[in-house]
Write a structure and sequence with these properties.
The complex is a heterodimer.
Chain A (H helix, E strand, L loop, with lengths): L2 H31 L5 H13 L2 H12 L4 H10 L7 H26 L2 H9 L4 H9 L4 H17 L2 H7 L9 H10 L3 H30 L1
Chain B lengths: L2 E8 L4 E8 L4 E5 L6 H9 L6 E6 L2 E5 L4 E2 L2 H4 L1 E4 L11 H5 L6 H10 L15 H14 L4 E5 L7 H17 L4 E5 L2 H7 L2 E6 L2 E2 L1 H10 L3 H9 L8
Parallel strand pairs in B: 3-9, 3-10, 7-8, 8-9
Antiparallel strand pairs in B: 1-2, 1-4, 4-5, 5-6, 10-11
Helix pairs in contact in B: 4-5, 8-9
The chains are: A mainly alpha, B alpha/beta.
């Protein structure tokens, strides 16, 4: 069985989740609490990856991450290498691909918090930053966990975007979904079946986790 | 230390235009019909809302001055502020709530003893009664060593019996405190029971006539009228 592909998949999903939690939190905070000009346009832009076909996202990512693209050039300047066909490349792609799945549930969780709780914290002397960590985060744990799980599962399932940006380099960019695709292409149904089967307990375990979290949030 | 306040602000249906002061060890009770701007006034005092014009001076500190463009944020005003029923953080137990911004955690133990909620320390706010929540909210506010205490209808969400008990505790507490207290209510009995000074607010303005009219309409108007004249002497209910 292609353990390496499964390892790359889980590593990618984990890296994506951790990065996105840190990136999405301030974005969701701004969307939930601030009003500014062009907000609805910005919000739609952030959610765009959800509405576009993965190949379209993949195409534009190739353009901007390629040697002539903005990000690709910067990367080349600092590291001397190419961003395409590397793990960091697919991690970047995966983060962009999953942004809406992190921002939306977090924003919903933040908006649900009673504004008066925040005022109470301000009156008690907490700065906005301290209020974010001591009041907002602890009161939206289940929303943040939902965001993390959604992002994790969504990155496990990514295929088109990763294939376009990363290709299929074993141990680097060949994730399980690509390994399954290639095995089927080569009529190797047994190898494909083994990897496919290994997904079932992983996804199942996460669903149970979501249920547990929901129960915890309700009590 | 005393506080001097004057505010002007345009609201949707009327304008707020009021000024008052409150000396230390004194309780000013702002009373008036619901929707008359009382909460907005106390929120402006706390720095949660911005008046269009006005001035708030506490002792030698200027908290707000529209002419000099001074507006000290609520964090820096060191207030105790008790709302109707949403002071406490749902993710913390009562003790953690009261020590949230406490100067000295040992005092919280004493306050909990004083307010008879020491046995509920570990309970979450949603697991105790409304009266116990408000007691904890008062402990939370006092533990911060506030320079002034603002109470916005702190008893309104409670049932009549709890309300009467807590009202008495508040009156006892008042005697022990050395800072000014501003109390908002729409309940005339409560106002008369607690106030050193009454500040009737109708449609954003000080309106002493309103209080007179209200009390002559009340069934126990004789007593109530005397109470309005001599609030310090009255203990009627």
């Amino acid at each position: 069985m292609d353990y390496l592909a499964i390892y790359v998949t889980l590593k990618l999903a984990l890296v994506t989740t951790i990065l996105l939690m840190v990136i999405a939190a301030p974005v969701a905070y701004a969307l939930a609490y601030y009003r500014f000009a062009g907000k609805s346009f910005l919000e739609a832009l952030i959610y765009l990856p959800m509405a576009l076909p993965p190949t379209v996202i993949g195409f534009y990512l190739i353009i901007i991450m390629g040697p002539k693209g903005f990000i690709g050039k910067m990367w080349q300047m600092f590291t001397g290498g190419s961003l395409l066909f590397t793990f960091i490349g697919i991690a970047t792609a995966s983060v962009i691909y999953s942004v809406p799945f992190a921002v939306q549930p977090m924003k919903a969780a933040f908006s649900k918090i009673d504004r008066r709780l925040l005022e109470s914290a301000y009156v008690l002397g907490l700065s906005r930053k301290a209020t974010f960590f001591r009041v907002i985060i602890p009161n939206s744990v289940s929303g943040i966990a939902a965001a993390a799980i959604l992002v994790f599962l969504h990155s496990i399932g990514a295929f088109g975007v990763l294939l376009m940006v990363g290709g299929s380099i074993p141990g680097e960019t060949k994730v399980a979904s690509i390994a399954i695709y290639e095995a089927v292409e080569m009529m190797n149904y047994q190898a494909a079946g083994m990897i496919a089967l290994s997904f079932i307990p992983i996804s199942y375990a996460f669903l149970i986790l979501i249920n547990k979290l929901n129960e915890g949030a309700r009590s | 230390m005393s506080i001097e306040v004057s505010f002007k602000k345009k609201l949707k249906y009327f304008d707020i235009d009021i000024s008052f002061s409150c000396a230390k060890k004194n309780m000013v009770v702002m009373i008036g019909p619901s929707g008359g701007g009382k909460t907005t006034i106390i929120r402006m005092l706390a720095g949660l809302e911005k008046p269009k014009e006005g001035k708030v001076v506490f002792g030698d500190d200027v908290w707000f001055d529209s002419l000099r463009r001074i507006n000290v944020p609520p964090q820096k005003r060191r207030l105790g502020y008790v709302f109707q029923d949403y002071n406490l953080f749902p993710h913390l137990n009562l003790y953690e709530n009261a020590t949230f911004a406490a100067v000295n955690k040992k005092e919280v133990d004493e306050l909990f003893e004083l307010f008879k909620i020491a046995h509920l320390k570990k309970r979450k706010p949603q697991m105790v009664s409304g009266g116990e929540r408000q007691r904890c909210a008062i402990c939370q506010a006092l533990a911060r060593h506030p320079r002034i205490l603002l109470l916005d209808e702190p008893l309104s969400a409670l049932d009549a019996i709890t309300r009467r008990g807590l009202r008495e505790e508040l009156k006892n507490l008042k005697g022990k405190m050395s800072f000014p207290i501003i109390y908002v209510t729409h309940d005339i009995t409560e106002a008369l029971y607690l106030a050193d000074e009454l500040l009737p607010v109708v449609e954003g303005k000080n309106d002493n006539q309103w209080l007179q009219r209200m009390m002559t309409r009340e069934p126990s108007s004789e007593v109530a009228l005397r109470a309005a004249r001599e609030p310090r002497l009255t203990l009627v209910y």
